[in-house]
Write a structure and sequence with these properties.
About 35% of the residues lie in helices and about 25% in strands. It is an alpha+beta fold. α9 packs antiparallel against α10.
Length: about 300
């Protein structure tokens, strides 16, 4: 069968950390960026971007999508073809929902598709981790589901974590940005043994809480001492929103990735109450937020 000269790649948003799973757990969500790639007819690479935040995406070859595409060909030592790309943004930029991971994954998958030399999925994931610097977003963006990534260099174990189907992932996306660099800058250089032990215990509980949907386990498991106590100062209204989520019978709330989006977990029974609580609490302090209930994405990145 002949290969098409044009493809559409869809990559899900991701939420990383889930509190105690700092830099090692990520979950794919039912919100997607789409990337159309076509081989160019005139040997020139072009870019078109539509959607909220389109004006912030470079239309030159320095954008992350093309740099990831290029990285693939540099890795296999081949000359990349000229391509026409169209990016449709649905995952908001700089909000802690893995928008950069969608670009990295799409760029690598497109490069692999058009290349005469194919790489395995594991090789592509390793390239994505090398570009991103850590696995928590790019791995679930590739594979879907909730994934625990354990390892280093190119020796990784990607472990699916079962999520009880009744658990709803409620994302509150505020109308302000927070760069990953700023969120990293507030983290301490050293931590105590007691804080490390706290997170190890809570990560174990998080895995069982997600699997069972046990409310008490989830409420405790979403607590963290490695990053959230330091980052929450960068997110106006964090403590008030947390209290509102608990009052609305949500299981708990965490910072999505590096923020500023906030992620609450809830049973389907109380999801609407949690949505209203998050939206109204932020609105009361003058911040507009888009709050939505999302499902776990089970497919990961797809190519049509």
């Amino acid at each position: 069968m002949s290969q098409s000269n044009s493809i559409l790649i869809q990559v899900p948003a991701t939420t990383a950390n889930l509190g105690s799973g700092f830099d090692c757990i990520g979950t794919a969500l039912s919100l997607y960026n789409q990337f159309e790639f076509s081989l160019s007819n005139n040997d020139k690479t072009t870019f078109q971007v539509i959607g909220d935040g389109a004006d912030k995406i470079s239309l030159k070859e320095d954008n992350l999508l093309y740099q990831s595409f290029l990285h693939f060909y540099q890795h296999i030592n081949l000359t990349p073809p000229a391509i026409d790309t169209k990016i449709s943004i649905n995952v908001p930029l700089a909000r802690g929902l893995g928008s950069s991971a969608t670009a990295i994954v799409a760029g690598l998958l497109a490069a692999n598709y058009f290349s005469t030399q194919k790489l395995s999925q594991d090789d592509l994931i390793n390239l994505a981790i090398a570009i991103e610097g850590h696995p928590d977003n790019v791995v679930p963006a590739f594979l879907g589901n909730c994934i625990l990534s354990v390892g280093e260099d190119s020796k990784w174990h990607f472990v699916p974590i079962t999520s009880n189907p009744d658990i709803k992932f409620i994302v509150a996306i505020p109308n302000f940005e927070l760069s990953t660099e700023a969120a990293r800058a507030v983290l301490p250089k050293q931590l105590s043994y007691s804080d490390a032990i706290f997170n190890i215990a809570h990560l174990g509980l998080l895995i069982k809480g997600l699997e069972t949907g046990n409310p008490d386990w989830l409420t405790e498991a979403l607590k963290d001492k490695l990053h959230q106590p330091y980052r929450k100062s960068l997110i106006t209204g964090y403590d008030d929103i947390y209290e509102a989520v608990i009052k609305a019978k949500g299981y708990g709330m965490v910072i999505s990735g590096a923020g500023p989006s906030l992620l609450a977990l809830s049973s389907s029974l109380y999801a609407d109450d949690v949505i209203n609580a998050m939206k109204n609490t932020w609105q009361n302090i003058g911040i507009k937020a888009d709050v939505k209930s999302l499902n776990l994405d089970t497919q990961g990145a797809t190519i049509e």
